[in-house]
Amino acid sequence: MAQTKTSTSAFIAVIHTAAHQYRITKSINGKYFAIPKVLTISDALELPLNEFKSLFDQAGTEEIFGSLTAPIAADSEIWGAGVTYQRSRDARKEESGIPDVYQLVYEADRPELFFKATARRTVGTNSNVGIRADALTSVPEPEVAIIINKYRELIGLTICNDMTSRNIEGENPLYLSQAKIYHGSNAVGPMIRPIWEINDYTALSIEAKIERGTNIVWQAQTSLAQLNRSFTDLIEYLFRCQSFPVGAILSTGTGIVPPLDISLQAGDVVTINVEEVGELVNKVVTTPININELENLWAM
């Protein structure tokens, strides 16, 4: 796996504290520091980039303590983009009984954009992701996610594991929401690398692997240089006829797709590494069909 530059870099981290479920901080060398005037990612994304950067630069004296969680807020929206790499286009055509639709969207001016998750459906690093109990085949989709403020400005980069029930989407593209939006279907993290900390994000390497016990059953790599669309283009389309008062997180699509003979199993561990951004690690569990009833029982 690529070496991740984290030893002296500053990151935007979100931690769970006794007082706050999603407290935004500045992370330096494993320590977390309060950022003046902002408590959550949503607070930060309500500010212009230059104003937030100024507050971020001031942080570093008031240390706070908590456990790292997904870099989101309670009211965050996570969106996804599809078929943005040639490998993704080819994989979708292999899986689908209606392959032409993926070729058309790959070549179209308008990208495929879809709502992916709320905070309740999103986990951070070292947490469990799910595979649907009613899916025959499921795969991770390793992606770079971009953090965008309400002014359409790019704030930073993080990693997203856009879990997907491959056979469900393959049966019919109209099943995409069921294939991609369910309990345990989204992981984001570990932290956000501020965009001003990255000299050139356009060719960052992306690597992923699936471990099953002591064996690596699949691994692959790509880079953002293979992305078929620019971040600017994706942001422009995302904000068309939409309002994001607390910004948005947009996962920009995958250029790494396991072959058809690979499917996730409960107990697998998925690791995604993005150069200069970090490493997202998640164990796989099965999401039961009756998760709603089970959650209600746990809450009683």
Automatic annotation (TrEMBL):
Alphabetical keyword list: Metal-binding
Cited Gene3D superfamilies: Fumarylacetoacetase-like, C-terminal domain
GO MF annotation list: catalytic activity; metal ion binding
InterPro entries membership: FAH, Fumarylacetoacetase-like_C, Fumarylacetoacetase_C_sf
One of the GO biological process terms: small molecule metabolic process
Keyword Cell cycle: no
Residue ranges of domain Fumarylacetoacetase-like C-terminal in the record: 109-285
Pfam families linked: FAA_hydrolase
Coiled coil: none
Family: Belongs to the FAH family.
The name this protein goes by in its record: Unannotated protein
